[in-house]
Amino acid sequence: MNHSVTQNESVQASMKTIPLVLIFTALTVTGCGGSFVPRTTSDDLPVFHSSKPASPTPSKDDDLMYGLLVGEVALQRGQLDSALQVYAKAARESKELDVVERATRIADVALNAELGVEMATLWVERNPKDLEAHQFLANGLMRSGKSDAAMKEFEFLLAALNDNKQSYFRIASQLAHEKNQDAALEVMDKLARKHADDPYALLAYSQLAARYNRLPQALEQVDAALRMKKDWPDALVLRAHILQMQNKTDEALSIYNTALNGTLADNSSVRMAYARLLLDIKRFDEAYAQYGKLVEREPGNSDILYATALLALQTNHYDHAEKLLLQLLKLHERIFEASYYLGQIAEKNNFAEEAMDWYDQVSSGEFYLNARLRTAALMAKQGLVTQSCSIAAR
Q: Taking the domains of the chain in order of start, what are their residue ranges?
């Protein structure tokens, strides 16, 4: 067997074993409803700056600022408990809103339920209309096992926010972080029962139950939502996902086939979810066909273009893959990834110089090393051993 055939087979094999995670992560896929509400982390706590001007003479304000400086030093050293104690004391004594707010955030990061409730309560007292204060108070109350009191805070948030549709999902997302799953589900159940005529409440409840792997409960709620709002894309996708979690893949596929052959034929989110399921069960040719339809509908979507290009390589549709990758370059998106795979295609076709030109475009990123190694290998095959070693050593 000659070298060119060996090289061809090697490159083709590498393209046929593209990790599925690359295809999955090529897409930005939104879940049902709104985005998750993030918890505070230590990275979300910038250096504190008081709103009060410096005093020219020693005063209680100076004592306060010295204490806060000590707290900041402790915080920057990762000593959350020490920083929290300092800030909690300063918040109680000064009741300054910026100090109270920061103490609340530190308590949330430190997972200190008792001080979290105390500081958030102070925040609410100082600024009763601040929705974030009520959210932090709900966090602390849930951690303290006071779910009934937390329920009142969630009701306040629902009443105060203009878009109840997204508010249910924000609350479900917040509850999804709770360690006590039963308590979180109980709160969501009460909210859903109180708003039983709102399909968004039921869908948010289903989403939370599925997150906690309470699948019969999740299925019951999503079915109730679909009875109110037939052919609802978000609900259908969630229902299919729950069935897949129950290992009822054929039923999940049936949901997508019925929807895409009916009223939701033009719905991209449903088709994308269907394609992801096909990928999950390794039916690559069918997934490729679905992504092809998505490209037709959204030719400027770089995430879809990239995922489809990877699937085209996986299923040996090299000409189509090349076309999609060149399209990505025209959009100035995923330049290094596209260049690397274009180099792979050129190498497969025994166009060594063209392949090296493409690999040379990969100046950074996750494929940088592979591109250098492929270039070195091509040079070595051409007898350019010194240059090959130089490239490999970069």
A: 37-144
* Tens-place pLDDT, residues 232-282: 999 999 999 999 999 999 999 999 999 999 999 999 999 999 999 999 999
CB crowding 276-314: b at 16 or more within 10 Å, else e: bbbbeeeebebbbebbbbbbeeeeebbbbbbbbbbbbbb
Q: Residue 293 has what pLDDT? A: 95
Q: Which residue has the tokens 């939502």?
A: 225
24, pLDDT greater than 60: no
0.85 surpassed by pTM = no
Q: What is the per-residue burial (b if ≥16 Cβ within 10 Å, else e) of 367-394?
A: beeebbebbbbbbeeeeeeeebeebeee
Using left for φ > 0, alpha for ψ between -120 and 50, and beta otherwise, residue 36 falls in beta
37-144 domain in CATH 3.40.50.2000? no
Give residues with Cβ within 8 angstroms of 71, minimum separation 6. Answer: 48, 82, 83, 86, 87, 90
Q: How far apart are CA 8 and CA 6, in angstroms?
A: 5
